[in-house]
Amino acid sequence: MTTATLPTSAAEARGKQSVPFLEVQDLEVEFHVSGTVQRAVQGVSFTLDRGRTLGVVGESGCGKSVTSLSIMRLVPQPPGRYAGGRILLEGKDLLQVPEAEMRALRGGRIGMIFQEPMTSLNPVYTCGAQIRESLSVHSGLSRAAARDRAVELLDLVGLPSPKQRADDYPHQLSGGQRQRVMIALALANDPDLLIADEPTTALDVTIQAQILDLMGDLRERTGAAVMLVTHDLGVVAQTCDDVVVMYAGRVVERAPTKSLFADPQHPYTIGLMAAVPRIDAAIGRLATIPGAVPPPWKRITGCRFASRCPLATEQCRTEDPPLRELSPGHGVACWRAPIETVMS
Amino acid sequence: MTSIDAAAAVDEQAPPAIQPWWSRLMRDPIALFATAVLLAIIICAIAAPLISPHDPFATSRAVMKPPIWNAGGSWDHILGTDGQGRDMLSRLFYGTRLTLIIGVVSVGLGGTFGSFIGLLAAFYPKLEPWVMRLVDVMLSFPAILLGLALVAVLGSGVTPVVIALAIASIPDTARIARSIAVSVMKQEFIEAGRAVGLSDIALFTRYLLRNCISSIMIFMSLRFGQIILIGAALSFLGLGARPPTAELGMMASQGRDFLLFAPHIAVIPSVMIFIIVLATNVLGDALRDVLDPRLRS
Questions:
Q1: What positions does the domain ABC transporter occupy (chain A) (predicted)?
Q2: Integer Cα distance of B63 and B60 in angstroms
């Protein structure tokens, strides 16, 4: 990310003097389903500064989507409940602000891109109308100004002939086009924080690359902070400055991208990386991590990954490892770290 | 960005626009026929004062005259006369008019309220158990019994019948509206709407209601036929319009006394009810086929 150093370092300098732009502290989210308590997110902490991209990775059900929805305070309550922790946006706790203020933040200072472009747009309104709706809620633009701005946004996200597309209904567009509209919608009011929940998962690979490039471009242009939720390590390596690896509702490893890929420390991260197919490696079976993620209602003593970990010891099974810093910025929640030998 | 633009141009080709629903509806001959019949009936009902050959309430000594196609029929009374010598054709026009009004008003009132609480139950899951239990209670109460009770309180007439029918159509519409709305609420665009910062009112009307309304309207059109039948049954039992007002169910009821000598007095209004109910049901089915995206092949 050497090309983006100028705005980034400026933001960093500002960030170091004051509070971080977004800080999640010990977030706990529970779901109460038919008498059981499912702890979807347990003590998740991370920070994100302006102009930076944070990748949140993990397999399905590890709590990464719940974490991103929590920042928007969109976890349905009930069955969800914020059991603890704080989400600080420039020092203000988003879990405490009144609903009206939260509504102003959603779509205003915080934009969100959803996973399923096919179903994330309201089918009964044109794409332009949906963008104008968001503009009128937050910016109070006049009709004509909102119309122009909507077309401008569709142009910005690289939709060809944006004027015509603004009058199209979602079902008239392809998946990639719809995702561009979603991004335009998320960017409508120049958000400072862009949360993208698996924005490319439902798209095919060529469109994925375009959407990621687009998001990178936009981040550089607007200086927004981007939180990218994904299960695709390739996407992370390509786009993120920092990475948070989640497993069963916990952060197991947190590091700058370079450091994480050069020297992964948690056995889970190592396993994930071994499972990524490589174009330069010999053809053979892909590595897998044996077992499955423990179900969220299960109470576990010790490390959550112990049952699947080849390095687990007695201590791993009885004591929960805290996240500790091995090198500056590189934290890992594992008793056995630092791990010298990379698993095959 | 050039490579991106080139690729974006490729995926620009949008799927062909779907034909509007009415043109697809009109290609179905049965639906077309049902629409024509219903339109004709509605026009006759609206124009009843203009096209009726006689005063529908004026009695005469020419009682129980047979319709034109039977021996002894005359062009003066095309459908004959009833037991009090009133012109059947004129009474049929007026009776259809009142029956349609009762049906439309009660389905409109009950359906609107029913779908509102159904949508509300889906929108606010906390309300759901309360609303749906209330609906269950209403569902377990027969419309005829409710009509009897209301007539006992309010006296017989059109108003208590309309109220009874409106209340009778609440629970069904509420349940249908809720089940439609629950599936809409699960769609990601509802969450996306929240993420844009919309208020609950905007989300309810522009996201939920707008996506449910066509399905609900179709259900109400199907419901309309049933409501007309129940309304006719209430009139038949003597709970509805008071004589000499013409109402199809009441006309059939009055014809019962002459069933052996002049069957047309009971049969003609009954056939009219049959045609109205059949036409609305056929049309409702066709509308559902055309508008429901899941049935669109």
A1: 22-273
A2: 7
Determine the 3-state secondary structure of A10 from DSSP: helix
DSSP A210: H
Q: Which residue in the set A103, A123, A130 is minimally distant from B211, CB to CB?
A: A123
Residue B88 covered by a domain: no
**In 10 A of CB A100, how many CB atoms?**
8
Q: Inform me whether the pLDDT recorded for A342 exceeds 50.
A: no
In a domain, B36, yes or no: no
* Contact residues on chain A for B211, CB-CB shorter than 8 A: 122-124
The pTM assigned to this predicted structure is: 0.76
* CATH number, domain with residue A153: 3.40.50.300
| Other Cβ atoms closer than 10 A to A150 | 29
Strand order of the β-sheet with A80-89 is A36-48, A22-33, A80-89, A92-93
Q: Which tokens sit at B27?
A: 């290609």
Task: Check whether B86 has a pLDDT greater than 80.
Answer: yes
- A66, A113, A120, best to mutate vs chain B, most B CBs in 10 Å: A120
Q: Hey, what amino acid is at B124?
A: Y
Q: Can the peptide bond before residue A338 be classed as cis, meaning omega within 30 degrees of 0?
A: yes
- Chain mean position to CA A88: 16
| Dihedral of alpha carbons B252, B258, B259, B265, sign | negative
ipTM for this prediction:
0.76
A and B: number of Cβ contacts within 8 A: 104
The domain containing residue B182 runs over which residues?
104-297
A65-78: average pLDDT: 86
Instruction: Tell me the C-alpha distance between A226 and A7, whole Å.
Output: 14
- Structure tokens given for B76: 């003066």
Interchain proximity B8–A103, CB inside 8 Å: no
- For the ranges A23-27, A297-301, B79-83, the maximum mean pLDDT occurs at A23-27
CB distance A222 to A153 below 8 Å = no
Q: How many CB atoms lie within 10 A of CB A141?
A: 17
**Structural domain includes residue B154:** yes
- The answer to whether residues B23 and A232 touch, using CB atoms and an 8 Å cutoff, is no
The total of structural domains in chain B comes to 1
Domain range for A135 is 49-71+96-255
| Torsion angle of C-alpha atoms B41, B46, B52, B58, degrees rounded to 10 | 110
Residue A154 lies in a domain: yes
Phi, psi of A249 (to 5 degrees): 85, 5
Best mutation target among B196, B203, B208 (most A Cβ atoms within 10 Å) is B196
Query: What CATH number is attached to the domain comprising B110?
Result: 1.10.3720.10
